[in-house]
Design goal:
This protein is α+β, with helices and mostly antiparallel strands. It folds into two domains: 2-42 and 204-235; 68-186, no CATH class. The protein is built from three helices and seven strands.
């Protein structure tokens, strides 16, 4: 009889065990994310205290180039504007406007800022970007390709175009320019209709710690519920 009871309890015990292991794993994952954010914030603080460097001083193979301040001179290619879709600022949907800037160190993709989208998707917002050779100042970002997001744009589309994500390999083919493997977000005072924001860390480390505690708490609760459920079943 006891052997039959143990066999009938095995599926429940296995399910509870798997749930507890998953919750504990998620808790440790959140702690790892917290640690990564702390390192990133320390790096941002250090780089914010340093002067702007040139584009040629950036070496992605040697170090993490994110968040460096850069200054360079160049000319915007306004014939190849890119509208990054689904960008939200203060609850309003719009686009980030990007364009290649031709410099002495080669072409680089520059994010000029955010503009609000019109009510109709048939039209793109008009933007005014200063032409001519001039100085740029901003922060370096390294876009990560999201495998879930699917680019709907074809390579023979006419500019300006809407892109779903910053895929540097695709943008190089689209523009025909061998651009640097990073993007510069301008941090200078806004020009015209652009809204410029630089938010490298969206979620602070403390939130990850809170989520980790929640997952560990849920694992403990699941263990207790599973224990009482199995023991009460045996008693019956």
């Amino acid at each position: 009889m006891k052997i039959n009871e143990m066999r009938s309890s095995l599926p429940t015990a296995a399910l509870v065990s798997v749930a507890i292991i998953c919750m504990i794993s998620l808790g440790f994952w959140q702690l790892d994310r917290m640690h990564q954010k702390e390192i990133r914030l320390a790096s941002i603080t250090q780089k914010s205290q340093e002067s702007a460097i040139s584009l040629k001083a950036l070496d992605p193979r040697r170090e993490d180039i994110r968040d460096y301040q850069v200054g360079f001179n160049g000319k915007v290619d306004t014939t190849q504007l890119l509208y990054l879709d689904n960008q939200v600022v203060n609850g309003r949907v719009g686009f980030d406007i990007l364009a290649p800037v031709v410099t002495n160190e080669g072409p680089v993709l520059v994010n000029f800022g955010w503009v609000e989208a019109p009510l109709s998707r048939e039209y793109l917002p008009d933007v005014s970007i200063q032409t001519g050779y001039r100085h740029f100042h901003g922060r370096v970002t390294v876009p990560q390709k999201n495998p879930v997001v699917r680019e709907t744009l074809s390579l023979d589309s006419a500019f300006p175009v809407i892109i779903q994500q910053i895929d540097m390999a695709f943008i190089r083919q689209l523009t025909g320019m061998n651009m640097a493997p990073f993007v510069v977000k301008l941090t200078t005072p806004t020009e015209g209709e652009f809204v410029r924001r630089w938010q490298p860390v969206v979620m602070p480390p403390q939130k990850h710690l809170g989520y980790a505690i929640q997952w560990f708490g849920l694992a403990m609760a699941a263990a207790m519920v599973g224990y009482f459920a199995l023991t009460s079943k045996h008693k019956r």
